[in-house]
Amino acid sequence: MWRVLSRYPRLLWRLQGVAGQALLAHKARSFFVVAAVAMGIAALTVIVASVDGARRKALEIVDFFGPDAVLVLGGDIENRPVGQRLNTLSWSDARAIARSLPGAYAVLPMRSVRSVTLRYGNKNHEVPTVVGATENYAATWNWPLSEGRDLSADDIAHGAKVALIGDAPAKALFGDASPIGRTVMVKNLPVQIVGRLSYRGFTGGGSDVSVDDRLIMPISTLTQRFNLDRHYFRGLRVRFHDPDLITVHMENLRSLLRHEHKLGPTVPDDFTIMSASEILKFLTAFTGGLVAFLGVTAGVAILVGGFVLANLMFLGVSERRVEIGLRKAVGATSGAILIQFLSEAVYLTLAGAILGVGLGVGLGESLSRLGMLELRLSPKIFVLSLAAALAIALAFGLRPARKAAGLDPIEALRGGE
Amino acid sequence: MTGQASSGESEPLIRLTDVTRSYVMGGVTNTVLAGVTLDVAAGEFAAIMGPSGSGKSTLLHILGLLDRPSSGSYRLRGRETGELSDDALSHLRNQAIGFVFQSFYLIPYATALDNVLLPGLYSDAPRAALVRRAGELLDKVGLTSQARHKPSQLSGGQQQRVALARSLINDPDLILADEPTGQLDSATSREIMELLAAINRDAGKTVIVVTHDPDTAAYARRQILVTDGRVARS
Questions:
Q1: ipTM, two decimals
Q2: Membrane spanning segments where (chain A) (predicted)?
Q3: Could you tell me the residue range of the domain that residue B220 belongs to?
Q4: pLDDT(A83) > 70
Q5: Is-contact B219 B212, C-beta < 8 A?
């Protein structure tokens, strides 16, 4: 008995060689199975990478936004009633919040100008937004500076012609050189760069504009030099002492603003209050559709790969009847035949998995370059793909392998004549 | 083959006792072997002859442990084979029997050397010893320079010689050849039968050839005639 048992490792090893040899002998068929499985695994790779990417992006947004802050925007951006004004937030609102909202400790008004061309030397770069900010912009937005200094209270008070530069325009205008101390033409206004924001690398809530593509100037300078409306703000950022009570704070803020805007009980809000979790919801809804689509695609693709494997294996078993009959005649047990054919299936799907991960990474790279997806590649994807490949091999390869193992050698050999 | 089992001295290599084989097809029982009793001693060279449909192929399948008798007893090396499991039969086929077929049945994508090694794969023998032995066997059948050739690059006679080498790789007691010259011209047939005779004479293997060709059967020292599922003359 021990002799029978002791020959299994050697037999198992030898059968791997047999399987490999058979696969190389049937290159075209092997290639089709590998390609079919690779499609499924590629889809799986993209979906796992995009789910991970969305999760990481969500965490970054919470980090960036701050769990203790809310953003108030003019107008109801969710319902957008016809004819509603967007400019509804005024200095008096800001002062009222700072003065009478319990728990709030910082109110930062925001104004912005869209699509402004920056010029340095002979280089041009159009930033989608120039943000008007108050002092300590980088500190309040948890956005570290990679060099230089933050905006100061003095800059705001005097309407200084200074700016913080985002990573994207800094690269476009200065390349690898330091932008600090340089003077950039913002439209026709010479502005000195005093600080550079570190690279964030994600796009803001649902748009494809990178947060890195921006310039930050004192709100006073922006208002004066670009002739902005002096009474209203695009938005207000309000920070609270206790992040755990943020929902209560938001409700209080809403009542206060409705009171300030003298809105009757039946009139809808003319402003929108967003917290980090709300922005996340928005983002999840956006990426969720794509992820669900990819998930279905991956499932179908993997299933197709499995069926291709099963069908080509059945074809192979009937074409190789003589080989199977011969092997059994010269002493292969049914188990040895089963292992040989299952091993062939496993090698094909593992090759498919490796090719698929490569394809998936390539596909993911181009999708994320197009800004359609945020991807995060991790070793987990590789492990998951190998597991999926193994599952395909066992689930779809078992029946053809059992058919091969169950062939009667006499019948099988007769098939060759 | 002395000292095989306790009964080894008195019992021949093969002992069939009243072996029948019948198939049921669509409710009709078709009897192919109707009670075969036959002894073959170790070292014999026998030819099983008979017209087609006589049951000689079925007899060969039973002797080769590829098929089981419907009733009766088959003792190989003094051991009752009817009690053995399928896996035990596989192991016994691997160790005790070498097969040669009419259509050679070489694996098309494997080299001559790998084809000779095939039964060795399923044995306990270490690979180095198998490869050495396969080389010797290819030398013996005169195909050393064709060891790396695929079957498609070999002539029919060469393919059958590869198959002969393959049947010997695990050093079995018994060689079973099913119409080994059925697809060969007469000159090549003679070469193959000379080789089988040499295997019987020099290596002491028991050789049983199934054939309907009297010229092929003439190489054997004993002719067993099968008609209508019975041994008519042995």
A1: 0.93
A2: 31-51, 282-315, 336-361, 381-398
A3: 42-65+85-233
A4: no
A5: no
